[in-house]
Design brief:
With 532 residues, this protein is of the alpha+beta class. The protein has 3 domains: 232 residues, no CATH class; 157 residues, Sandwich (Jelly Rolls), CATH 2.60.120; 48 residues, no CATH class. 52% of the residues lie in helices and 14% in strands. Strands 2, 3, 5, 8, 9, 10 and 14 form a 7-stranded antiparallel β-sheet that branches. Strand 8 and strand 9 form a beta hairpin. Helix 3 crosses helix 7 and helix 5 packs antiparallel against helix 10. The radius of gyration is 29 Å and the shape is globular.
């Protein structure tokens, strides 16, 4: 299994820029919706009311009372406890009481079985925690309004922004308590399920990825060969030719070596045989380290391809080249601090497939619990995000509608939905925009066929352009939960990266705090609390 970090997120400044885009887009949407709502209710005077509300929120923020917020937080926690929210621990306990029966034999543990254990625990934690938080945050304020118990609060000196903050913090605390309890039990269960002799399978590898390029059979830069695989992720190099795959690792230094001074290169190459021959014989490759400044190179002995598992190649820091001992750091790292690695296929008329993340430098491993609790932290950020959106939605509509709305936003936050929206925004979907696609569907015109010359199509394209701009705003308004998918890293034995997962998740979550609080505040200020 490999992980290919999103390149444009390797720079933390890109994530910070995204934070400003998300926070600015959400704030603009909240202000625009609030203004339109006031204009619909009060006409032109709604502009004056809107300005007064902006002044009111500034005044309330300046006079926030931590003591009142904490009191409302404790009240929320107590109400959730009385509603048996913590009973989810019973379901969680039942799952773990009988889970071992269905997880296979624990006497002989295999890597895939460890992956199943970790995925089961983290998935169970996520699926049991999020529904509880979703119900609590979406039904809390509507139930208070329906039962009129909220009047006991609003008649006190508590401000409405403090009510929103108290609800969000209280429900988030409930989710965190449930999450920490489940995570602790789950971690102990995983460790106990795996025998002592197989504990080494609980790994937390730290990969360092580099850039990659292919050289064709003539030694010129090109693309990898396509051997007919439907999944065109990997390119293939031909054996016994000048075809190569080259990697460039930036900022290479001694910290990337292990404690014994070895350079660990882990790969997940695939093999393609143009003739079968002896199927028990592996295909072979070699690895060459070279310095582009001095043309100094070192080639390892031929190594067999592990076709179905990852393989670790250890290269000692001190290597011998032409009878002279060389140091990898001093002699093979270029002036710009980069290490260049080249892989060649040795077997004639055979092919080895590889992609950029199929070869990486494996830094010293971290303890398993580090990666595990990083993944739990990612689930906690998801809980916090859902609670904020749910509380904000519950201030506008009733509980069932707020639940559906929050759940739909959660679904649209997934990788598949965002990928489809991004493809539409960037014009990668054939057939044009919404109206143009609808016209092609009705008139049975293929996506590659030109539309007939007609001035009306200019209007259609303009409307589609406006809709695409609105969709662009939606893609930056709806959170991207693909960054929060940290359990997949841990289940496959990798550490959760900071730049490509933890940092974007933290920034996305923080970007929703102010807009959700503002939306909940405006909704409670505008709506009639007497309504049921």
């Amino acid at each position: 299994m490999y992980f290919d970090p999103i390149q444009n997120l390797l720079n933390p400044l890109f994530s910070i820029r995204n934070w400003f885009i998300i926070a600015g887009s959400l704030t603009a949407v909240v202000l625009m919706v609030s203004l339109l709502n006031l204009l619909a209710i009060r006409g032109v005077r709604g502009i004056v009311v809107f300005a007064e509300e902006l002044g009111g929120i500034a005044n309330d923020v300046l006079h926030l009372s931590p003591r009142r917020i904490w009191a409302l937080t404790r009240l929320t926690f107590t109400e959730a406890y009385r509603r048996k929210a913590l009973a989810v621990f019973v379901v969680f306990g039942l799952l773990f009481m009988f889970a071992g029966w269905f997880m296979g034999d624990t006497k002989e543990i295999k890597p895939d079985q460890v992956k199943v254990y970790i995925s089961f625990v983290l998935t169970a934690i996520s699926w049991l925690t999020l529904p509880v938080v979703l119900i609590l945050c979406c039904f809390g304020i509507p139930e208070d309004i329906r039962l009129r118990s909220i009047h006991t609060v609003v008649t006190k000196p508590a401000r409405r922004i403090e009510i929103v903050l108290g609800r969000m913090i209280g429900i988030s605390m409930i989710g965190i308590v449930v999450l920490v309890g489940m995570a602790s039990v789950g971690y102990i269960w995983i460790v106990r399920q795996i025998p002592a002799e197989s504990q080494g399978l609980l790994t937390c590898r730290v990969p360092v990825y580099g850039g990659m390029r292919f050289l064709d059979r003539n030694g010129e830069e090109g693309a990898g060969l396509n051997v007919g695989d439907i999944w065109g992720f990997r390119g293939y190099i031909e054996g016994a030719t000048k075809a190569r795959a080259q990697w460039k690792f930036w900022q290479f230094n001694e910290s990337m070596l292990d404690a014994e001074g070895n350079l660990n290169l882990e790969n997940s190459f695939s093999a393609f045989r143009s003739y079968k021959g002896d199927m028990t014989r592996s295909l072979f490759y070699d690895i060459k380290l070279f310095n582009i400044d001095t043309n100094l190179s070192y080639t390892t002995d031929p190594q067999p391809v592990n076709e179905f598992r990852s393989k670790l190649d250890k290269i000692n820091r001190k290597v011998t080249v032409d009878g002279t001992q060389r140091d990898i750091i001093k002699d093979f790292v270029s002036k710009d601090g980069c290490l260049y690695v080249e892989v060649a296929c040795i077997d004639r008329e055979q092919y080895i497939g590889m992609a950029r993340p199929d070869l990486f430098v494996r830094m010293p491993d971290r303890p398993f619990y580090v990666g595990f609790f990083k993944a739990v932290f990612g689930i906690g950020l998801t809980v916090l995000l859902v609670s904020m959106i749910g509380v904000a939605a519950s201030t506008m509509v009733k509980g069932p509608i707020a639940t559906i709305l929050t759940f739909v936003i959660y679904i649209l936050s997934g990788k598949s939905a965002h990928g489809f929206m991004d493809a539409i925004v960037m014009g990668q979907v054939e057939g044009g925009g919404f109206l143009e696609s609808l016209y092609r569907l009705v008139m049975q015109i293929g996506p590659s066929q030109e539309l007939p010359a007609n001035p009306a199509f200019s209007v259609v394209k303009f409307i589609d352009w406006m809709l695409n701009n609105f969709l662009w705003l939606c893609t930056h308004t709806i959170p991207r939960l693909q960054y929060f998918n940290m359990p997949e890293f841990v289940a496959n034995g990798f550490d959760v990266p900071w730049n490509t997962s933890l940092l974007p998740s933290l920034l996305v979550t923080s970007a929703f705090i102010v807009p959700c609080v503002m939306l909940g505040y405006f909704a409670l200020r505008i709506r009639e609390l007497e309504s049921k």
